[in-house]
Amino acid sequence: MEKSSPSMTGGTREAPVNISPAVAANAEGDEIEVLESTDVLAIAPEEVQWKSLFDKFDPENSGFISTERFRDLLATHGSELDPHKLEVLLALADGNSDGKICYQDFVNLMSNKRSNSFRRAILQGSRQLKGCSLRDEVGLGLSQRLVRHVAYETLPREVDRKWYFDSYTYCPPPWFILAITMAEVAVFIYYGIQLDRLVLQVSSPSFLKSPLPYHPQLRAQAWRYFSYIFMHTGIEHLSLNMAMQLLVGVPLEMVHGALRIGLVYVCGALAGSLAVSVTDMTAPVVGSSGGVYALVSAHLANVVMNWSGMKCQFKMFRMAMALVCMSVEFGRA
């Protein structure tokens, strides 16, 4: 069997045979050669709307369009796009050194997906966006101003902030931190009523008899390694943890999602109980400080590593206050 390629018959191009991977043998039949597949992958449903538009500017079906044709596409259909998304597309066209845009990068942008190669292309074109800061936007609603504030609090690059501003939809909302906080408040109120102690619950003899606090002597009860975060010694302890948890955790979850922030929080809580079980074999543990420390530490590390790019106000003062609050909480423990 000989290798074959699509041929032109009667002016009509034959459809390529979908074989992946392609395998062919030479005339003698003693060698088998694996060919690279050039088939176009099946188009996901959300990509169908962009396929016909891209094909108009790619009549050769090469999978690429030149930056000139890409600009023509934007000039024709730019009014259908969000202004910030149009700016990022223009930056991509201007910053692309190859002179062409591949189909997958085009779909990634339209579908709010970001591959590594696409992100590099965006960063190459980010110089085109420096003159139009997201801070200059006017006429924004309350929810849009909140998203913009979160973008400047957590993201170091202007192109990332614009991308986040365009893409964030509050669906899903930052439910994890809010749910954990409400659960902690509910448990505190419940035990406050049960123990008749709403201010300083730890003063009650029955406080540590609850199944929630972590006891090093009760390590076999595995749920206590995490359940201790729902108990607090008093209203001051709860208030400080709640404030830091909401002020830091909610913006981080809005940017990075509940799964990542939840993983950081849970790992911090587990690390806290494990550390106490090693360093002090007699002290019980309550409070969500372990999870809060993990969130604050992750945020401070991001600020320090991207110091010049972070545009949040009073960076040094806020870092100092966070460290003071963590030190006070650690000292109280």
Automatic annotation (TrEMBL):
Segments forming domain EF-hand: 45-80, 81-116
Membrane topology, from the record: Multi-pass membrane protein
Similarity comment text for this entry: Belongs to the peptidase S54 family.
Designated gene of the protein: RHBDL3
Gene Ontology molecular function: calcium ion binding; serine-type endopeptidase activity
Enzyme Commission code(s) on record: 3.4.21.105
Record field: catalytic activity: Cleaves type-1 transmembrane domains using a catalytic dyad composed of serine and histidine that are contributed by different transmembrane domains
Localization, UniProt: Membrane
GO CC terms in record: membrane
Protein name, as recorded: rhomboid protease
SUPFAM superfamilies: EF-hand (SSF47473), Rhomboid-like (SSF144091)
Taxonomic superkingdom: Eukaryota
InterPro entries from the UniProt entry: EF-hand-dom_pair, EF_Hand_1_Ca_BS, EF_hand_dom, Peptidase_S54_rhomboid_dom, Rhomboid-like_sf, Rhomboid_IM_Serine_Proteases
Primary localization class, coarse: membrane
Listed transmembrane segments: 175-193, 258-278, 290-309
Keywords from the UniProt entry: Calcium, Membrane, Metal-binding, Transmembrane, Transmembrane helix
